[in-house]
Amino acid sequence: MSEKRVLLLAGDFVEDYEIMVPFQTLLTVGVSVDAVCPEKTAGDQIRTAIHDFEGDQTYSEKPGHNFTLNADFAAVSVDDYDGLLIPGGRAPEYLRLNGDVLNLVRAFDSAGKPIAAICHGLQILSAAGILKDRTCTAYPACGPEITLAGGTYQEIAIDGAHVDGNLVSAPAWPAHPAFCREFLKLLGVL
Question: Looking at residue 112, which CATH number applies to its domain?
Answer without folding.
Answer: 3.40.50.880
